[in-house]
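Journal club prep, notes for RB
We'll compare a predicted complex against what the paper describes. Inputs for the zinc ion case:
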Amino acid sequence: MTDDPETLLREARTLLPEVVRLRRQIHRYPEVGLTLPHTQSTIVAALADLNLEITLGKQLSSVVAVLDGPSPGRTVLLRADMDALKIQEATGLDYASEVDGAMHACGHDGHTAMLAGAARLLTMRRDRIPGRIIFAFQPGEEGYAGARLMIEEGLLDRCGVPDAAFAIHITPRHSSGEVFSRPGPVMAGAGTFKIVIKGRAGHPAEPHNALDPIPIASEVVLALQTYVTRRVKAFEPAVVTVTAIQAGSHELGAIPETATLTGTIRVVSEETRLHLFSAVRELAVNIASAHGAQAEVVVEPGYPPVVNDPAIVEAVGEVSGGLLGKDHFRLMPTPIMPSEDFSYILQRVPGAMAFLGARPEGQVTVADVHSPQMILNEDAMAVGVALHTAVALRLLDR
Ligand SMILES: [Zn+2]
Ligand SMILES: [Zn+2]
């Protein structure tokens, strides 16, 4: 048995029927959030004959499986998320969700099945693994910060701090088997805010006897837009969007007591994310105060930006080129603005997230992830299995 790319890819293709079966089993019973008992037991059963050291999560249904080679060496962590979304599936597939209002619409069922396949392929090479591989199956990626909870439960400490980490996200937007990534920021960091401007209600004909929160809220909206263009580097993408304004009522026709703004922040550097969190607060509080009013500000930090290690992206590019041919790996020109909690792992461990194209054959317009019609090309999962395996072997070897 060798580790040359053709052999890895051929073996991954041999495993594909089993990977597809596992994916469909998970797809049928999607579970949302941090508690995924069915998914957890399905993964544990899929890994049962591999003789890996398995640890289950306490506050979440995570599965951590450790493969130790015959000699000590570097440690590589491979991660797959395994949670679904609160979406009613409308694909019409014969293995569609059997759970009302839940669907694997982000491809995490595929991520999980690919990582289980890679665990098998790597275990077949156990005798020649120079170190340790950690397979991390993570619940709660979709807004529940499952990765952070797994870190709190010792993911990065219990069996040695990993030297490198790698994760794949599948995408139906690109042709099957194409791999994308980029050095540095690859996905955005996020945050949301709620600002309540507290004025004083009163008669609309006598605003001097009231304290109208509406013009103050309007100033805050404009100040937030100005702030982003004047205070954030022009070369750094940053978005502050006010998504709702609520004040007064059409029926009452009076000056209201309060005005409420909610909004969202997206950035690609952690420094700017924290900077904007405090800027939102300061602008709102100080603009309100200048008018004799008060502002209450609540910022909910989302996930930090996903920042890839350049050397590891280079290794992923070389490995992908070797597996699939050079033109199947592409450097993304810009980050994308969704966020992902693999970022918590990358804050501690140098690593990379890559995207794997999985567009169904013959489709030009596709339903993207988070759509009730989202369908994946399952053949791409063979590439995912081979990619996880080849990247792990490469990163162990560095
Ligand atoms: Zn998603
Ligand atoms: Zn996802």
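Talking point for the session: The two ends are 21 Å apart (CA to CA).
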